[in-house]
Amino acid sequence: MPYAKLWSKMPLTTVLSLLITAGSSLVAAAAAELVERQSGNNPFSGQFCDYTSFQASVVGSRLLMFGGNLTINKGTNSKEKRELEPGFQFFSLFLNETFQATANASSYLRREQDPAPDKRIASMRDGGAFSYNGDVFFYGGQQLFNAGDDDTIYKCTPTSQNIVWNSASINGNVRRTITKGASVNAPSEDKGFYFGGQDIIPKGADNEQADRVLNDTFLNSLVVLSFSPGGQEFTNITTPISRTKPLAKSNLLFVPAGKAGILVNLGGDDGNGDGAWEDLQVFDIGSSTWFNQRTQGNLTSGRSRNPGPGTCSVIASDGDNHFIYVYGGSNRAPGQSQLAILTIPAFQWFTITNQDYPSKVDAQCQLAGERQMLILGGRSSNGRGDCGRNSFLEILDISSLDIVASFPNNNPFTPPPLVRTASNSSNPLDGWTDPELQGLYEIQYQTSAQRNRGSKSEKGPIIGGVVGGVAGVIILGVIAVFFLMKNHRKKSARAVKEAVAEVKRNSAAQPFLGQPSPGFPSPAFTSGEYPQQYPQQYQQGYPPTTQPYKDDYIVEAPANPAPVELPPASPAVRPAELQS
To answer: What ranges does the record give for the region Disordered, renumbered to this chain (predicted)?
Structure first.
């Protein structure tokens, strides 16, 4: 019997039941395939090719990687190679586990479940990720679908069981429509920073339309995210081009120097193929001031005079010396230097050429422990035909400068011999481009928590010392007055007796003019000068000829109010005269 006749003779309820059963089977099979792809042995639906334009952030012992472009190899047919993995990308790498970094990413990489559709979580390229108090905030970036409002960003909270998604509001003179900027997290300051990038036009109501990047725009604004238990605050600091070159895809690093930390911005692209390499852009967080600093050293390798855009970087510190490791770049070809090291405060570049260093562009770098630089994702600069030979993860030992496979390494960081001579310098080899930066750099850095504890702990001793000192002076004064009065009374009694006798002798009584009683002056408090914490020019303001740029949005804090004066001492009461 033909199938059409068979279907026509079936009751309607039976047909619907069969259709529902078949549909359910298809959905279940698709769901099972998705779960197997996400939580099974292989986190990808094919062989890994590259992963770019994503964001990475560490929360506790978990490294999260979010958004971006994932390309895979699904077969030997050239038409099946390097397909863009559709949809939402979210991976975890657990830093409290021991593993070997091999080409098989499934041995250490976990694919997280897609969030619920009602959360409206966007699939995102670029942007910045900032962690605070167990949450990860994702700011900026090009959203591919399910974009939020202009004043809304997304955040997630990883737990031991799952990952909870939510949204957060933007305030201040800040918008989300910015991408390809440089981001850095400063946990010791409870802040995050996002520099430069490019404008984007938010997409319309069509969910198939992505945000459009305005490629002819390059920005030099600095977005500051200040976190607190009560929420987050956003500030937009715009700087004249004379201080900061507008850049996209640069590297922003937090240096633990100065009163509240310093940001160093380097690399990137200004639209003409140039970035910040010879002249760096330095931001002092405490004064919200931009500076420039010239570097020394040769970054040329092969035909490229610098690594170009598409680099990633980490920073390691050894006392007052800091070392910025910059990896990869679109200008570097295989066999050229993939690693450059900048020493601070010498501000000297070193390049390292090692044939074992794989060429990487648009990777993400994270420092694990003190000496292991995780180089995540990226694509090879060998070309687009090497799919499958580009490892998802490379581990660089920043002390030995070797590519290693074993993770973790809990040994402390020691500067490599190549840069130790430069680390002995306490000043840039070419001097300070902005002399004011020297004074800021020489201030011993303390974390925000240390500064807050110091201010609270210092108020008690200062106030107690003042009050105790005044009280001590008063007590000593009272004791001194008591003995003076006692001595004076004895002398007065003897004088009266002698005067009476003299009157009797002379038969002419003379009036007794007693001596004025000693006064009771208020105890004098001479305030000693506090030790100078900053150089003199920073106490009295910048010299007129070198006045740094001050942003219009930054409101100067009012001067500290004068301490309330202690109440005057109660007037002393003259003790009763002793009986003679």
So the answer is: 510-580
Question: Which amino acid type is present at position 275?
Answer: G
Encoding tokens for residue 254? 């937090």
Give 344's contacts (C-beta < 8 A, 6+ positions apart): 255, 257, 264, 321, 322, 323, 324
Describe the strand order of the beta sheet including 152-158 as a list of residue ranges: 128-132, 135-139, 152-158, 163-169
**Number of domains, the chain:** 1
Among positive and negative, which fits the CA dihedral 33, 35, 36, 41?
positive
Number of H helices, E strands in the chain: 6, 33
| 404, containing H or E segment | strand 402-404
* Residue 347 maps to a domain: yes
> Residue 568: helix, strand or coil by DSSP?
coil
Q: What is the CATH number of the domain that holds 349?
A: 2.120.10.80
Tell the residue number behind the tokens 């009986």, with chain if given.
579
* Cα→Cα distances 34→30, 92, 124, Å: 6, 17, 20
Domain membership of residue 116 as a residue range: 28-441
Residue 542, domain member (yes or no): no
Sorted by sequence, the CB contacts under 8 Å of residue 535 that are 6+ apart come out as 439, 442
Residue of 467 and 128 predicted with greater confidence: 128
d(CA 362, CA 380): 9
Q: Look at residue 538 and tell me if it is in a domain.
A: no
Highest mean pLDDT among 14-28, 438-452, 540-554: 438-452
pTM above 0.70, yes or no: yes
In whole angstroms, how far apart are CA 499 and each of 91, 260, 502, 507, 514?
106, 76, 5, 12, 12
Find tokens 């008063």 and name the residue. 474
